[in-house]
What does this fold into?
Amino acid sequence: MTNRDFFKILIKVVGLYFFIQVLFTFLPSQIGFLNFTSDSSSMVGTIIYVVLIILFITAILYFLIRFPEKIIDLFKLDQNFDQQKISINNFNQKNILTIALIIIGGFLVIENINTLLSGLYLVFRKSMNPLFPVSENSSIALILPALNLLLGGILLTFRKNITNYFEK
It folds into this structure.
């Protein structure tokens, strides 16, 4: 594997990770801003802000995943190495992408299981004691970690299918 191939894989994996983080973390928090506006003029401004941020982030992520060669050329990532090839026995693009999916899926599972379990515990406590204080956004606080946990599980379970799709 050449240095250029390694950096292309690395940039695509980082783009994929940021896409997952934006989809399940950043977008819900930005859409949450819409609930805090009271009049129509601030609501329009907030909608414009959210749409511009979404377009900007989508453009960056598309560029990361679709054109990693241009990023490599811009920052000259494949130059000034002693050797032009990375000698890793039994590692090819498919194996590295599979390992990256395992890392991303595992990170999503580990990061969100604690949040989901604590949210479920609070809901259980509320059901046992009606006087126990629970925030009104408890359903959203359960849905987002559950979706991240589900996505992590999907990445771990279907990593070979996803790797085959990205190899095309």
Remarks:
- The two ends are 18 Å apart (CA to CA).
- The CA atoms of residues 121 and 127 lie 10 Å apart.
- The chain has a mean pLDDT of 80.
- The helical segments are 3-32, 40-66, 68-75, 93-128, 138-157, 159-167.
